[in-house]
Amino acid sequence: MKEGVFDQEAYNAVFFPWAAQIPQPPVYADMADYALGEGVSLFRVTNTWQSDGLWTSPTADGVLIAAPLYGELFRYVEDAGEDWCKVRYSGGDAYIRKESGVIETTIQMQQGMDKRAQIVRNAINCLGCPYLYGGQDPIAGFDCSGFVNTIMKQAGISVTRTTKTLVKEGTAIDVSQIRPGDLIFFGASEETVSHVAIYIGNGQIIHAHSTGYGIRAESWNYKGEAPFRIVNVLGDQN
Question: Which residues contact 138 (CB under 8 A, 6 or more apart)?
Answer without folding.
Answer: 126, 129
